[in-house]
Design goal:
By secondary structure, this protein is mainly beta. Helix content is about 10%, strand content about 55%.
Length: about 375
């Protein structure tokens, strides 16, 4: 079977749009897209995959098939798309953070808040053959964003150096551009494959300023992690037709563990009376920066054009990475641990083809997510 000129034109448009968006995000890779002290560690705050369609149901997608939405969580799900359709999905994300904590230094309660808004994803899909669909997507993988400020309170140090101001800053993140392909094998089985390219920069640094004693030099020290490497994943789905227009779909995905570290720039600068000197500048290959092996299983059951309910389980094995050794802190020992994620969601459309009532044609979704994250402090796993 030959590919028509229309499909070739669509492929060119998809590729050009993806490159434009990739360049735009790459230029903004140092933006603060999260605000949490947990991003001090590891790869930071991990972004959940998928689009607003998946988020509306808790993030499920491994066992979900629909011809009306782009499901990028499982590449096999792309194969259900109509052979004459071209689809695009663009999403923004706005996050509002608010936190309180009790300081052990001054016995006071402190508050912090921040808002962030940014592009979350751009996804396009189009048929290549009658049973094969191609998808191109751009997603965030992780975000780092924190700004911790404190002053020296120990009298013996202040007596020798004067007042000292500390500022711990982290920004940036890792993004991924993915090329997916889903194909129908027979009537009910679909297989898929996805290739990812991870890129981005994570900057973490500390500023020490001596605010009352000019005889000491201010210090800026930190590290810049550069990511850049390819990864891959596989997916499969099988749909069981049931009576009364019902269905049951089972799905699974497997993502290979991939080292994404490109280089690490470790630096320290001193500033005295406006003069900046380089104290340390080392550039090495960052072998410990990696995306873990990930396995997901999902199922969905429902009635076509009426309702659907689904459940996903996701397991990530972080033990092959070395973030634990890279991210020790003075007060608590941080280490990575296998993460477990459970998602559940449901959608309902009262009467899809009721042209007299707009609200009856709308689809209503809700979902829940429970996660035991990959972060552990003093053997306590964050939930």
């Amino acid at each position: 079977m030959q590919i028509s000129y229309r499909f070739i034109y669509q492929f060119i448009v998809v590729t050009l749009l993806s490159l434009v968006v990739t360049t735009a995000l790459a230029q903004n890779e140092d933006a603060i897209n999260t605000f949490t002290p947990y991003s001090f560690y590891g790869l930071g705050d991990l972004s959940k995959p998928g689009t607003a369609y998946n988020f509306g149901m808790g993030g499920i997608g491994a066992g979900v098939r629909t011809s009306r939405q782009i499901n990028f969580v499982n590449p096999a799900a792309l194969s259900v798309q109509d052979s004459l359709s071209f689809m695009i999905d663009f999403g923004m994300e706005s996050l509002n953070y608010y936190s309180t904590y009790n300081s052990s230094f001054d016995d006071k309660q402190h508050k912090a808040a921040s808002n962030s808004t940014n592009i979350h994803h751009v996804v396009l899909s189009f048929p290549l053959f009658r049973r094969v669909v191609i998808g191109v997507g751009l997603f965030p993988y992780s975000n780092v964003g924190y700004n911790i400020q404190s002053t020296e309170l120990r009298p013996d140090i202040i007596a020798n150096t004067g007042n000292i101001y500390y500022n711990y800053v982290g920004e940036g993140g890792i993004s991924q551009i993915a090329l997916s392909m889903g194909a129908r094998i027979g009537k009910h089985l679909s297989l898929g494959a996805q290739g990812q390219y991870y890129f981005g920069t994570i900057d973490r640094y500390t500023i020490v300023r001596f605010t009352t004693n000019s005889s000491f030099s201010d210090l800026v020290a930190g590290a810049s992690l550069k990511a850049g490497n390819f990864g891959g994943s596989l997916g499969a789905q099988y749909e069981f037709p049931l009576k009364n227009n019902m269905f049951l779909t089972l799905g699974a995905t497997y993502q290979f563990s991939t080292k994404i570290g490109k280089r690490l720039v470790d630096f320290a600068l001193s500033e005295t009376a406006g003069t900046i000197d380089t104290v340390r500048l080392n550039e090495t290959t960052q072998d410990g920066m990696a995306v873990p092996q990930t396995i997901s299983f999902g199922l969905s059951v429902g009635k076509h054009n009426v309702w659907m309910a689904g459940l996903d389980y996701v397991y990530q094995d972080w033990r092959g990475t070395s973030y634990s050794q890279q991210s020790q802190k003075d007060f608590h020992f941080f280490q990575v641990t296998p993460s477990h994620l459970l998602r559940a969601g449901v959608e309902w459309t009262p009467r899809r083809y009721d042209f007299r009532s707009y609200l009856s044609r709308c689809t209503y979704r809700m979902g829940l997510t429970y996660e035991r994250t990959y972060m552990s402090f003093d053997d306590y796993q964050i939930k």
